[in-house]
Amino acid sequence: MPVSSSSGSFERFAPMAWLLSGDDLRFFEDYPQIAARFRRSRYKVFLGYLRELDAEIAAFHRESFRLVSLGAWDLLTHLCRNRAILLYHQARLFQAALYYRWLPNRADVLPMVRISLTAIEQTVTA
């Protein structure tokens, strides 16, 4: 399983917690074109991290359901619940990225990102 039970392997996703910070955009308030390019580049980097996180979660699901196929049927309910939690928080991370990219002055997405990353880490490392 690529995502190990230690939090060390999850640390590489730490930049996701600050990449969509609105504070950085306030620096460029007087330069809207620069702010738009900055927001676009941060959005692309965040999506790169999100794709990598999605791949890690998919590997987690494959390994988890492999255990069920080997006879650990008592884990099925727990694994299905975890899958639903992970899918929900993956969608929230994507939603946060879209809000950051297209609604920069109307939405502070950092709390949403931090909550979802924490929930994903707790679900995967539990």
Helix content: over 70%
Tell the overall outline.
elongated
Calculate Rg over CA atoms: 17 Å
Number of strands: 0
Count of DSSP H/I helices: 5
Content of β-strand: under 5%
Straight-line distance between termini: 13 Å
Elements, N to C (H/E)? HHHHH
Which structural class best describes the helix and strand composition?
Answer: mainly alpha
Structure description:
The two termini are 13 Å apart. The protein is built from 5 helices and no strands. 71% of the residues lie in helices and 0% in strands. It has helices at residues 16-19, 22-26, 32-69, 76-102, 110-125. It has 126 residues and is mainly alpha-helical. Helix 3 (32-69) packs antiparallel against helix 4 (76-102). It is elongated, with a radius of gyration of 17 Å.
Short description:
The protein is mainly α. The chain has helices at residues 16-19, 22-26, 32-69, 76-102, 110-125.
What secondary-structure arrangement, pairings included, does this model have?
Blueprint: H1 16-19, H2 22-26, H3 32-69, H4 76-102, H5 110-125
Features:
126 residues, mainly alpha, 5 helices, disordered N terminus
